[in-house]
Amino acid sequence: MTAATPPRLRFAPSPTGYLHVGGARTALFNWLWARKTGGKFLLRIEDTDKARSTDESTQAIFHGLEWLGLDWDEDVIFQGANVARHKADAERLVANGTAYLDFTTVAELERLRADADARKEPFRFDRRLATWTPDEISQKLAVGEPFTIRFRVPDGTTAWDDIVHGRIAFENKEIEDFIILRSDGTPIYNLAVVSDDIAMGITIVMRGDDHISNTPKQILLYQALGATLPQFAHVPMIHGTDGKKLSKRRDAAAVGDWEYKGILPTAMANFLALLGWSPGDDLEVMMPDELLAHFTLDRLHKKAAIFDTQKLEWMNGQHLSKRPLAEVLPRVTDALVRHGVATQAQLDADPSRTAHLVDQLRVRARTIEEVVKQARPYLIDDVEYDADAVSRSLLKDRIASADILSATRDALVNAPAWTAEALEPALRTLAESRGLAAGKIFTPLRVAVTGLSVSPGIFDVLTLIGRDRSLERLARTIDMLATTA
Predict the structure, then answer these.
(1) CATH topology of domain 82-235
(2) How high is the pLDDT of residue 251?
(3) Domain ranges across the chain
(4) Is 446 helix (H, G, I), strand (E, B) or coil?
(5) How confident is the model over 383-406, as pLDDT tens digits?
(6) Distances (CA, A) of 223 to 1, 362, 429
(7) Contact (CB, 8 A) for 478 and 444
């Protein structure tokens, strides 16, 4: 593709459900190549299935793409608005002899299929069933007999050089004359897609490799309509860790599911890009500008990709810590409010404390939901204690733990100020006086005041929680340890 002819690519989802992660990955690849080459990324909503298409699904597609940062060029195309052109293209094919009218009834087709099943043979439409003289066709049309339009598959081979898979060829004798227009005048998928791609000037069709079997039919339609063929790139399917195709019953297959679970859009885009593509040099964590800089079509994979949720959460942790705080902060505060951990007024009352808290917690979390869990001790009065943390750090020796925490509380009460600079020497002096490593003081203290075994540095923890709340929690934990199990 030369600089003088920048490519035109498209994403063409059906609005019959959520935005699937596989579709989002395909959209991302198209968007990356369009942006990399100065081309155009177009969006077409394939809504010809009126019974299943919904406005809600269309909006979910828009939202999912926008959340991922994938903007599109030109106006959105709605396929259902182009049915008149689809029909005109079908009629043009009849006129040039590459398609024909088929008056075979549904009942007759069902009988023929049943006969083939009885012979244990696959059913293939025999075009001789639709051989009529011009006069016979005129008579049938005059009395309003319903008909479909079928494409007349020529002899020979249909082949193309796929950007991902290389040379792919189909023997035309394996393709039956296929319907392109139903008896109600609506187009079949292959005709609608080709007609729209021609009208939109699409030069690269990049999509899942489950469409490979459609491609020879579409190439034949391009040729019959006298149009220039686009390049084709069929990217691998996405499977779960069980090796099976992602299922909405077994897997979180919707982009919106991961947004709700606290995955950052940049992390999701990074993860999706690596499902079927590699930048080389073992590079994995990439911000949007790095993705764009490294993306090339020659490194697209042929084999199915595996959607590993643990890898996604790990990658999200990398993005949580690396993205600008101003980008992460509103997503975390929205989640804090949504989960009832804090009110917006509470967070807005001390914005610098809120920002500092989020900044401290995000480096130890993989998802925004984990940040929310870790934030609870700093924002609510009644801390929830993690049973495993309490068991490991406090309950192995109740008496020793109570003694250490009592001494720790006394040292904190007598500290000259409630600042990290004042609290650190007080606690380190206590550890030295008892001949203990500092961790023997810090670990039970952390569990007592946060209920968790993981937190930011203990002195940041104490200053963020505050003097009164910290001392009250220490007293409560000491009382708990003093109680006979």
Answers:
(1) Rossmann fold (3.40.50)
(2) 57
(3) 82-235, 255-379, 387-482
(4) helix
(5) 888 899 889 888 888 899 999 999
(6) 21, 55, 84
(7) no
pTM for the full predicted model? 0.90
Q: Report the distance separating Cα 443 and Cα 225, nearest Å.
A: 74
DSSP, collapsed to helix, strand or coil, labels residue 416 as: coil
Helices (H) and strands (E) in the chain, counts: 21, 12
CA 415 distance to own-chain centroid: 51
Instruction: Give the total residue count for the chain.
Output: 485
CA distance 357 to 420: 15
Rounded distance between C-alpha atoms, residue 431 and residue 404, angstroms: 9
- Under-50 pLDDT residues of the chain: 1-3
pLDDT score of 52: 87
Q: Is 248 a catalytic residue?
A: yes
pLDDT value of residue 45 = 97
Task: Tell which CATH architecture fits domain 255-379.
Answer: Orthogonal Bundle (1.10)
Q: Give the class (CATH, top level) of 387-482.
A: mainly alpha
**387 class by beta-carbon count within 10 Å (0-12 exposed, 13-18 middle, 19+ buried):** exposed
| pLDDT tens-digit map of 300-340 | 999 999 999 999 999 999 999 999 999 999 999 999 999 99
Tokens representing 143 are 């009395």
Among residues 173, 244, 248, 302, the one annotated as catalytic is: 248
State both tokens at 241: 């860790």
Structure tokens, 401: 């733990």
Place of tokens 């190549």: 33
Q: CB–CB of 279/299 below 8 Å?
A: yes
Beta-sheet pairing, 148-151 with 77-78: unpaired
Torsion of CA 245, 250, 251, 255, to 10 degrees: 100
CA-to-CA separations, 156 to 97, 128, 213, 227, 323, in angstroms, rounded: 17, 19, 16, 19, 55
